[in-house]
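Re: your question from the hallway

Yes, I did run it. Sequences:
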Amino acid sequence: MAKPRTLEPEQWELWNSWMQAQRLLTRELDRALQRDHGISKAEFSVLVTLHRAAEGRMRVSELAESLGWEKSRVAHQLTRMENRELVDRTEDRSGRRIGVGLTAKGRDSVEDAILGHAENIRRHFFDTLAPEQAAAIHAWSRQTVDRIEARCREGA
Amino acid sequence: MAKPRTLEPEQWELWNSWMQAQRLLTRELDRALQRDHGISKAEFSVLVTLHRAAEGRMRVSELAESLGWEKSRVAHQLTRMENRELVDRTEDRSGRRIGVGLTAKGRDSVEDAILGHAENIRRHFFDTLAPEQAAAIHAWSRQTVDRIEARCREGA
DNA sequence: CCTCCAGAGTTGACGTGACAACTCTAGGGA
DNA sequence: TCCCTAGAGTTGTCACGTCAACTCTGGAGG
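Structure:
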């Protein structure tokens, strides 16, 4: 058979260390964001996206589209962030929620966090990444994203 | 400055596509496990670890060590899995919990799931991975795991 | 005009993950 | 003997993420 039913030991080894490296790295970055800036990675993503928006105000659906998140995830996240006064939801006069924007506190938080986060990514990721490793990872990432997105589109 | 304060655009591009590739890939594998075998990735990890254990029975702390999880996470996971009758906890005569093992249902589930999961990893990961990409990724993974674990040890 | 429906947004339930506080017990000195 | 501390294991609390079900509104078409 050209397609063995299970993986070779060295494939398991590669797979496990790859998964673990990812896990450790993202946990590290998450913790740093929390410790140094008091926000989580999810909050950071939302804040950055809103911050990049031209008017600093977006529809929930745009936000979901832009983040690649499900709308319910965005709604839950916004509820938590509204409680923490990082964002506010604007309503039309009937009380229907129509858009989201940064509060002053939210704006301060991102602008503060974004430099530190970039610095951490550089330290933990790019500084130990040889050029051919970067090339390999980049190529693999693009392949993978394209392939899975293609499968989702055709499967839908 | 040798160390710029923020990342180059192509670095952001690499970082973002890498994060997204991870996210899509693990979500894909998770869903397949859930759909085809009715178990989650976390449950699968626990079941596989117990299944590999010589006597099929481990201490909670061994399990935590082997999975690289915090003990509280393991305890919560075991509670859920005990409710689903995938594992059982053994007690000494004073009622103190002393070990964990697979139930028959748990054993069936892993043995059933493991081939399918390996197949999916092969399809989604290894089949699109050129040998030199595999080598680069493997090298990077090992570096990263070692470095972060070293930092944790010294930081503690 | 009325109905129905598609899309936006929310909510609830549940599993996952991190962190801190707690209980219990065995073992090691004073 | 008694204390007491280290380790095992649990529990509570909170944030995150997914799925399904729900509400509301603005049209398109009868």
